[in-house]
Amino acid sequence: MADSFDRVAARYDATRAIPAAAEAAIAAGIARAVSSTPQTRLLEIGVGTGRIALPLARQGLRCIGIDRSAPMLVAAQRKGRAGSGRLLLARADATALPFATASVDVALIVHVFHLIPAWPRALHEAPYVRRPGGYSSTAASTMARRAKSARSTSGGGRS
Description:
Layout: H1 2-8, H2 12-15, H3 20-33, E1 41-45, H4 53-58, E2 62-67, H5 70-80, E3 87-91, E4 104-110, H6 119-129, E5 130-139, H7 143-153
């Protein structure tokens, strides 16, 4: 799946524009919803070009973004140079997150599950990197159809 995003990284944002005011309002809403502080650590799984994580970093959250597509991460890095410096980027797979258990306060996944063949594993993985009492949020058009199936496949501990 990364290959298809590798090819469109340079023009991705132009095809999915979010007005600046809406971008700021979305980030402010997420920051309020998770009761963020300057110490809040947020992981965005499938960060792409940083359309969600960068505005959150500008709101003061300490953000980490992962993606499988190196060109998408390069685009996010370029955009982030104008940001607050509170966004770290890494190439990683949503089904095997390279973070310790309970290492972030918020795990955010926006419109990504339909792109992950092993999406139940990604859904299962996110809660393990989130601290107890933290927040996990997913947004995807396919989640409603898949939620019942995910419950039956998410099983025991992290492997």
